[in-house]
Amino acid sequence: MTRLSVIGTGYLGVTHAACMASLGHQVIALDVDPEKIASLNDGVVPFHEPELQELLSSALASGNLEFTTDWAVVAAQADVHFLCVGTPKSKDSDAADMSQVNGAIASLAPHLTKPALIAGKSTVPVGTAARLAEYLQANSPAGAEIHLAWNPEFLREGFAVQDTLHPDRIVIGITNPEDEKALREVYDASIQEGTPFITTDYATAELVKVAANSFLATKISFINAFADLCDAAGADITQLADAIGHDTRIGRRFLNAGVGFGGGCLPKDIKALHARATELGLGEQFEFLANVGRVNQMRRELVVERAKSFTGGDLTGVRIAVLGAAFKPDSDDIRDSPALSIAQALVDAGADVVVHDPIALNVVRRVHPHLNCVDSLTDAVSGATLLIHLTEWNEYRELDPAALNSVVAGRTIIDGRNMLDRDKWINAGWAINYLGKPGS
Ligand code: UDX
Predict the structure, then answer these.
(1) What pLDDT digit, counting tens, does each position of 231-282 carry?
(2) d(Cα 29, Cα 10) in Å, to the nearest integer?
(3) How far is the CA of 291 from the centre of ligand 1 (A)?
(4) Strand ranges across the sheet with 412-415
(5) Model's pTM, two decimal places?
(6) In this structure, are residues 89 and 293 in contact, taking their beta carbons and an 8 Å threshold?
(7) Is the distance from the beta carbon of residue 173 to the nearest atom of ligand 1 less than 6 Å?
C-alpha cells in the first residue's frame, strides 16, 4: 500500500484516484473547485464513464479514497503525488495552456516539507518535466528530497477504468533510479499481470505520449484521405482497410473511416506537438500534423456538402435528425465532437436540426442551449427528411429502419461512421450513403 495523492479531478484524475484506491492504495484527491470536491465526496462522478461510478462508490465506502481542496493536507498525507490536471489548447495559439500544471506545482511546492515523489501524468510539451523538477527543488522546503517522475497516461474515454487497471504499457521518465521502485510498488498489480514497464529519461516519457496520439490521429486522417479517393474512384474504404489491416505491420485498428477524430486529446495534442516542434526548429518535419488536422476538418465539411446534395443544394428549413452528439460512443464528452460541429454547421446553413444522443444530451443542452435536443429517438427522427449518423452508439447500429418508415418524411440516411448495415437499410426502402464506399 502506498499513500498517494491525485491532483486534478477531471477525467484522468477521478479515474486514476478511484482505480488506485480499488487496488488498495490510500488515496487523497485534490481539486481547486470546491463544488466538484463536494459532489465527489458524495460519490457522484461528474461525467459518463462505464464502471467508474461503482468503483468510486466502493472506494469511498472502503475508506481508501477521499477528496479535498486543501494542499497542506495532501502534502502531509501522501508520499507520491500524481499530477493529473488538464493542458487544454491555449486561447491565442496552438500551444498547450500550462496554467493548470504550473498553478498546481506552485500551490503544492511550499507544503512539501518531507521527501516526496511527484509523478506527472498530464500531457505536456517536451521539456516541461525538467523545468518542473528544478522548480520543485528550488521552491519546496524539502528541497533536493523532492523528486519528479514523468508517467504519461494513455487511457481512452469509454474504457478509462480498464485502461487504468490493465494498461498496454507503463512508461516512467526518471532521473533517480530509486524512484522506479516507488512507482513499481504503485503499479505492482499491473506489473504482476505482465504489463511492460518502460523506464526512460524525462523527455522520452513526455514524447511517448504525444507520439502515440499523433500516430493515431495520422492513421485516422490517412484512412479518411483514402476514403475520399475511394469515393472518387468508385472503391470501398472498408474493404481497403480490412485488406491493408491484415498486414501486421499496419494493423486494422484505428482505420475506421468516417467523420474523423474529436475529443479532448487528439485534436489539441497534434496542434501542441506541432507548436512545440516548431519552437525546437522542426516545424517543417512536423508540418504533416497540420495536414492531419486539415483532413480531419474536411470530413465535417464533407458531410454538410453531402446533406446539401440530397436537398437540391439548399438546406433552408430542411428537417435533419443528427444521430449522436458525443465524440465517440460510451462517453458523454462533446469536446470537439465531429457530430456537434456538423450539427452546428447544418443549423448555420438554415436546416431545422434535431440532435439525439443516448447519453450526452444533458451536456449538449448545457453547452449549446440553442440546439434542439430530443431524448426519444423516435421523436427525433419524426418528420425528418434526412438522417445523419455521426456517433456509433450500438442503439443506432441496431436500429430497425422499417420501424422508422411511418414517422420519417424522407428515407435517406448518411452514415458518417460507415457502420450501418447496407442491406438492412436498402431492404427497408432507404437510400444509404457512406463516406468512402458505395451506398445505394
Ligand atoms: C485518445 C487516445 O486513444 C488515448 O490513448 C489518449 O490517452 C487520449 O486520447 P480518446 O480521446 O478517449 O483517447 O479517444 P479515441 O478512442 O482515441 O478516439 C479518438 C477519436 O478518433 C474519436 O472521435 C473516434 O471516433 C475517432 N476514431 C477512432 C475514428 O474516427 N476512427 C477510428 O478508426 C478510431
Answers:
(1) 999 999 999 999 999 999 999 999 999 999 999 999 999 999 999 999 999 9
(2) 11
(3) 18
(4) 372-373, 352-356, 319-323, 386-389, 412-415, 431-434
(5) 0.96
(6) no
(7) no
Residue ID of nearest Cα to ligand 1 atom 9: 265
- Closest atom of ligand 1 to 212 CA is 5
Phi, psi of 350 (to 5 degrees): 100, 0
User: How many residues appear in the chain?
Assistant: 440
Task: Give me ligand 1 centre to Cα 343, in Å.
Answer: 20
The pLDDT score that the predictor gives to residue 251 is 98
268 lines ligand 1 (CB under 6 A): no
Regarding the beta carbon of 258 and ligand 1, being less than 6 Å apart is answered yes
Q: Which residue, judged by its Cα, is nearest atom 32 of ligand 1? A: 254
Find cell 523532492 and name the residue.
Answer: 146
Q: Is the CB of 154 under 6 A from ligand 1?
A: yes
DSSP string, 132-146: HHHHHHHHSTTGGGE
**Domains located in the chain, CATH noted:** 3-200 (3.40.50.720), 201-440 (3.40.50.720)
Give dist(CA 82, CA 164) in Å, integer: 13
Alpha-carbon gap, residue 370 to 375, rounded angstroms: 15
Nearest ligand 1 atom to alpha carbon 255: 33
